[in-house]
Design brief:
Layout lengths: L1 E5 L5 H12 L4 E5 L9 E7 L6 E7 L7 E5 L5 E4 L1 E6 L7 E9 L7 E7 L8 E4 L10 E5 L10 H9 L5 E4 L13 H5 L7 E4 L2 E5 L14 H16 L2 H6 L2 E5 L20 H4 E2 L4 E2 L1 H7 L4 E4 L5 E4 L2 E2 L2 E2 L15 E5 L20 E5 L3 E7 L4 E8 L5 E9 L8
């Protein structure tokens, strides 16, 4: 006999059907307890697993609920995934407490729409949907990219939601600062903005690497985080650059929050001639990323942090390395950088220097907006910038064309 506690009579049929389907239960006794004793799962979001057959689901509850469970399937929830739960206590005076749950959905068919519902096996979320990542490298991922999106002044959000409802994107890349003051109001601001991060993954004909630039600026959390990330990063680049891997996924794209280059009128790292992210530890010039990325032939670098949009000419060591005068982005001789940090936040814009524009800066904009990227095939990558201020107009676009990928000469 299985005793089933149901908090809401409206859930009885759905839970019974899911249990009978998943576990072939024959004898079930249903009882009810007040709804106030349970908290609805919230802050539900998904992120890709390490291959197209997996999807990670993360959610939160405000009371102690164990038995993290997701029901999922194609059209019906006939599969089950068990997860884990971690207690989180905010550092504010109220010690706001919640429970973070995560489960991995496995055995997915690539490129397929699934329905899913998550909770504690009794009180479950509404039925949601996602499309699993397509398999292989022979397809053209469509991606939205942005950083510095806050709970206050999130101007780009409505347009991004509309784009997503139209099915315009296969994935969204967030380039850091996904919220501001997450600890404010005893952690309740953080409850309203939730995200996860990945370090290394493949999508279509691209290998994408997400790094933490913050390690260079918060050494009091540990001196070894910089060299450890550098070692991990170089090992990952070596693997991605192997001929057999580069033939399958020729594009290598990196994402980090703080840029190597920018022409904003502030005193951020990217405005310095010897940026920490670019050249590494001061004076010793150890663990800098520009030389490493150049060595392994990184094609595109995506940044944020500056609340503006800036596209660079192909650049290395502050020198423009265009493919040619007439076609600068055809077979460029250095990586192409994009800074896309204008999605909208409480800190508004970061203005540009107006006196002398650096020779490596190609396009600049203070419009609120976000970027779109399509990795068309092994040789073509398309990028455009959307202005929310101009009602969704594309204010910048470029096609990067590479006949071959690899270390720059």
């Amino acid at each position: 006999m299985l005793y089933l506690i149901v908090s809401d009579p409206r859930l009885v049929y759905k839970v019974l059907l899911a249990l009978v389907t998943a576990w072939e239960v024959e004898n079930i006794l249903v009882s009810s307890i007040p709804l106030k004793d349970f908290k609805q799962p919230e802050q539900i979001h998904i992120s890709f697993g390490d291959d197209p057959t997996k999807m990670l689901v993360t959610w939160s509850t405000m009371n102690v609920t164990q038995n993290a469970t997701c029901l999922y399937g194609i059209g019906t929830t006939n599969m089950i995934a068990k997860g884990y739960t971690r207690k989180f206590v905010d550092g504010g005076p109220q010690q706001h407490t919640q429970f973070i749950h995560r489960a991995t959905l496995i055995n997915l068919k690539p490129g397929t729409r699934y329905v899913y519902s998550c909770g504690n096996g009794v009180l479950m979320s509404d039925l949601l949907t996602f499309v699993s990542m397509k398999d292989g490298s022979d397809w053209s991922p469509r991606i939205a990219l942005f950083g510095d999106l806050g709970f206050v002044n999130p101007q780009s959000v409505p347009r991004l939601i509309n784009d997503t409802k139209k099915g315009m994107y296969d994935a969204i890349f967030h380039v850091g600062d996904f919220g501001y003051d997450l600890d404010a109001q005893n952690g309740h601001i953080g409850d309203k903005i939730c995200a996860t991060n990945s370090n290394s993954f493949n999508i279509g004909p691209a290998h994408v690497i997400s790094i933490s630039t913050e390690y260079f600026f918060y050494l009091y959390y540990g001196l070894m985080q910089v060299p450890r990330q550098y070692e991990w990063l170089e090992n990952d680049l070596k693997e991605a650059a192997k001929p057999e891997n580069r033939a399958k996924r020729p594009w290598i794209i990196t994402m980090g929050h703080r840029p190597m280059y920018c022409s904003n009128n502030d005193n951020d790292d990217c405005t310095h001639h010897e940026s920490l992210v670019r050249v590494g530890v001061p004076y010793l010039h150890l663990f800098g990323l520009e030389k490493l990325f150049h060595q392994y032939g990184v094609d595109v670098m995506v940044w944020a942090h500056e609340h503006s949009y800036e596209r660079l000419w192909p650049v290395y060591d502050r020198k423009v390395m265009n493919g040619s005068r007439d076609e600068p982005y055809t077979n460029p001789k250095a990586p192409v950088h994009f800074v896309t940090g204008s999605a909208g936040c409480q800190e508004r814009h970061d203005p540009f220097k107006n006196q002398t524009i650096p020779e490596w800066s190609a396009v600049r904009s203070l419009d609120y907006g976000y970027s779109r990227m399509q990795i068309v095939n092994s040789s073509h990558l398309y990028w455009e910038q959307v202005s929310d201020d101009k009602d969704g107009a594309v204010i910048d676009k470029v096609m990067i064309i590479k006949d071959k990928h690899g270390p720059y000469e």
